[in-house]
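INFO  loader      accepted 1 record
INFO  loader      residues=59
INFO  predictor   begin
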Amino acid sequence: MKGYLGIGPEEDKFVPSDRAYDYALERCLDGTPEEQAEFKEMLVDWYFSGNWIKMEGLE
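INFO  predictor   done
INFO  writer      dumping tokens
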């Protein structure tokens, strides 16, 4: 069986590969406020990492 076995605070949890996306999305959208903030930052950084140039100070 392919999947992910948790360690540390996720110890003894196993998420099968075919459930991994749903599990991760659920945890990121409905997790703690800290998990949600981390996910938001990582998603924006990832999404705009390709064909985008970050601009700052434009007003």
